[in-house]
Structure prediction request, 166 residues.
Amino acid sequence: MSGRLYDVVFGGELLPDADPALVRQRLAALFRIEVSAVERLFTGAPVVIRKAVEEGVATRYQHAMRQAGAVCALREVSPSAGSADPETSSAENEGLAPDLSSAILLPPGTPFPQPPPAHPPQFDFSTLTLAEPGVDLVDPRPAVAAAVPDVSGISLVDGEERKEEG
Prediction:
């Protein structure tokens, strides 16, 4: 091991005579992502596929992408500056490119693994009982006496008396 670290960078370049649709399908299978997510790799700006990986890992990525029909570059990471490329960093900060740093490489044509079967939830109803129809399940609230307003100063006026006043 050389101890050097590399960024795996993809700029959207394909091998000569490569079918773009087929390359996108292969990259989707390779990175286990949807074909629509692969489109974000083809923005025209360089996209860092893996950051600061050892040379052996970086060359495996480069070889696997070449097998899929895509060309990627290896960029050595300087220990002091890290992998700070302003053009790539700004594209990643804007959310234009997916973060593939934790993607798993599979050989092209590898089928997706089947998810484990989903089992329905198991509930224990053995302690529940049914009440007879019409039984109140909750104690009724006690009646609260409402405050009655004082209406002693209010009187009703007959309709004829109103006409005479008006």
User: Anything to note?
Assistant: The beta strands are 5-14, 47-54, 70-77. The CA atoms of residues 7 and 51 lie 5 Å apart.
